[in-house]
Amino acid sequence: MRLVDPECAAIAAAFSRRDLRARLPESIAAKDPMYRRSGSSYDLKSIREYQPFDDPRAIDWKLYGRSDRAFVKEFYDEADDEVAFLVDSSASLSCAPVEEYLSFVSSMAFILLSLGMSVRLWTFGSRLSEGYVAARSRGAHGSIAGALAAMRFEGRTACSRSFAQWRAGARQRRAFVFSDFHEPNPTFRSSGGLFLIRYRTPFSSLALPGTEAEVRDPETGAVVVAPWSGTDERAWAEAEAARDAALASIPRVFYRRLDPGTPRAPVYWDALERLYA
Amino acid sequence: MPDAIAPVAWLLAPVVALLFVALRLRRRLVYPHELLADRSGARPTALLLRTIRLYYDAAMDAACAVVVGLAIAGYPRPAADKGPAVVIDASASMLAGLRGDRPLDEAARLALTRYRLDEPGARRTRLFALGWDPARRRHVLTDRSDALEAARSPQELAAGLESSESFMSADYALLKDLARRGYGEIRLLTDDASVEGLGVEIVRLPAKPPRYLLLAKAAWDRGSGRSVARFVSAGGAEPDSLWRLGADGAATRAKPEDFEIRRSPSGFELALAIPGAWAVRWDGRLLPFIAPGQPEPLRARGTMAERVVAGLPRLVAGNTGVAGGAAGARPSGGWTGRGVEVADRGGAGRPGSLSVAEARDESWLLPPRLTLGALVASGLDRRADLALGPAAFASAEAATPFWLAWASSAAPDGRAAMAAASRPIRVGDGYLYPGEAVVTPPPGEYAPTGRRVVAAAGSPPERRVVVALALALLYCLKAWLGLRRRRGA
Predict the structure, then answer these.
(1) What are the residues whose beta carbons fall under 8 Å from the beta carbon of A68, sequence distance 6 or more?
(2) How far is A131 from chain B (nearest CA, A)?
(3) Are residues B125 and B150 located together in one domain of the fold?
């Protein structure tokens, strides 16, 4: 299984040749480390004396013990250059084009890593996974690819709840959610930097027109007899369109739906454009 | 409808087999239900509609099987059962006897007391009268249920029928119309003992012993120069008086010098000086009749016709030279005969004409009805009524057809009377059509003919058209659905 699309390196190179500095986030764009925004990363930015407006919790107590003066350490902000990947691993994804799905996730991670961003990947089914995989450079992409290759699709889809879980403890300001969003009324609250990528297989490509099929739900195991006449296909298409419209209408959200065989390169580029907008 | 279960089941069996195969070949998929679940058809109606929509082919086949199965079992039934029908024979014989003791009175009593169902929920009995329409001059079957509903006594019902019906004669073949209209239980109340029912319940009413006075024949008598009417009578019926009828039906007592009456072995003869419409009163009943006048002389058109007519001088000269004051009398009041023309230019079968042709080869005989049974040689010429050759001319009996045509030409033209639309006038037992004819009940209404008559209800017409239309509709629907599906609708 090829987990990185061949055009990804070219996309990353082409995108890096653009005047990215002007478009990159403020912290990344600053050449002088002095002007990079302070944050919560482990990269030490400076040590200065404690000021009244500082958080007392930031006082370096060891240094205080040695010098009897209060100093605080400042770290660079790490949120801006790290992107969260929330990858749906519910059983319903097994009905989607799995290889294309995983390739897309892996390729997206590869491009971001190539552009100097770091990626932290969670999987979710009925809930967000407790562990995650982090990669800080392109060389670490293997860990992402390995995690994706080892992913098993099981459990129910709960993308809204998983996203809320992630959001409660997240430090990243940008997140990609890869899912089929097969759950009733998925809701996402975002202040920006949220990318929703939907992968699905159209039911019309599975069922024969004018027949009916016994359809087993991969998550619940329930079986229904689904008719598939012209009227049913229209109704299904309307429901799908309504789902797309609902997801696309979330404020400040980048949403794309991919079917099997959909060209992925334009989606990569659009996502990067939006990421650096 | 249980009898339709077996054929319908047999015809549905292959449809069910096809449906079973289709179900067995149904695809099995794995797919999230989230966007499919809302159309799973929780309601039975939705499930039924969905099934019909998906398996429209099998549904159409099943519907066709049901239609054909029902057709095999005899459905749809020929007509809706409209309940019982009681038919009263409204012929002249029903009025025989004294009022209150006539067959009509008994029929009214039965219709009102035995066959009218007044229970709530019971089907209303319909009353029909089987009679004769004097205006249209044909037998009719009329619905008189309103009279049955309105009558409070048998006498009232009988009086209502007497005023509305002509009581001339009845045609039992019209009963088939009732079965066609959906009446399943048909009863005929009649005094005619010769009627047998086939699918019709015959309720025989007590018939009266024969007592009648009938016109047997009326013709112009060349010997006396008068019109002679011969009557037959039975049961001691005697004529009471003789009346002359005007054009408007008004009757005036005949003067003694206008007629002579003679007894005969079977009844009596009336020799009337004045031809026209007359009426004989007997037992309080009035019997109208026509006394024909002297026939018109034969006319000739064509060479051979002139030769033939010249050989029949007595028919040309008419009654001239015969003693009697009424010589050359003509019917008065518009009662005129039509005369006969002998022609030799073809035109066989033309009314008022007798066409002749000369024949050399006479290998045939004239129709015995034209010769009163005599054997007269004849040739064959389809353009003429009579093809006469040397052998025919040598026979004295060859004059018989000309005499018959001449004698019958004194009577008014019956076909012209049928075509005319004059208003009939009721005169006693019959109807007078001014200037045309007199219609009286047939002899069978007075005396039993002994001829067996079958009153058949018949079978209602099969509704094959309904079945054919239903099948055509189903196949059109099937074709339309198939076309719609092929277009991806």
Answers:
(1) none
(2) 27
(3) yes
